[in-house]
Every structure is written in C-alpha cells, then in structure tokens.
Specification:
Blueprint lengths: L8 H20 L6 H15 L6 H8 L3 H13 L3 E6 L2 E9 L1 H21 L5 H11 L3
Antiparallel strand pairs: 1-2
Helix pairs in contact: 1-5, 2-3, 2-4, 2-5, 3-4
Length: 140
Amino acid sequence: MPLRPGESPGFLLWHATLRWQRGTAEALEPLGLTHVQFVLLACTWWLNTHDENPNQLAVARQAGTDVKMTSQVLRTLEKKGLIERHVDPADTRAKLLRVTDSGAALAPRAIEAVEEVDRRFFEPVDRGEATELLRRLAPM
C-alpha cells in the first residue's frame, strides 16, 4: 500500500523545498536577482575572493548547475553589469569569469539575505543535524 503524502519523505522534501525556494525568491527579488542568478553570482564571487579566476565550467561545477544553462544565466549577469566574461588565453573556447565592482558589492548582500532565509527556515530544527543530513543526501 502506498504511503500517505504526510508519511512520504520525498513528498515532504518537495514541500519543504518549495517553501524554502519561495522565501529565497522573496529575499532576492528586491536585489534584482533570481535564485539561479544569485547562486552563480555567489559562486563566482566566492571563487574570485579565493584567488581563482574560474571559467564557466568551474562555476557550473561549484554551483551544481547545467553548463548550458549556466552560460545563459552568466550572460544575463554580464548584461546586468555584475560579472565580466573574458576569453581564456590558454583555451579560446573557454570564458574566464570575474565579478565587477557592482557584483562584488551585491554578492555579500545577497548572501546575507539568503542566509537569513536559511536561519528562519531551519529554526525549528537543529541546524547542525539538518546540515549533516543534507550532506549525506547531497554529497558534493
């Protein structure tokens, strides 16, 4: 006999994910970012601040996103003036990414907004235990 919806971990995860995504989208909307734009900007910013000059593939791997979709979203971030894409002199097929001054100013603000969503979302549970559970479910 199938589980009732409230007994299905996958169904509950689906609902929890939707609630978390709604909160994240609401927090990012005033900053002019979609969730995926935020993730790619934050990953690029983080890599840049750790002395890395990543290409699009490295950012896609860091973010866990599809390479083609990543390229499209990075193009949008470039149009918004948040990142710059330059041809890699070592591989002319690859684009190296750098956050602009505007992107470097926005990324920490956006990260702070999303971390506040996380703090409120995970408030009812032990954050350390939740993080460990998620690490086991989604190893990086």
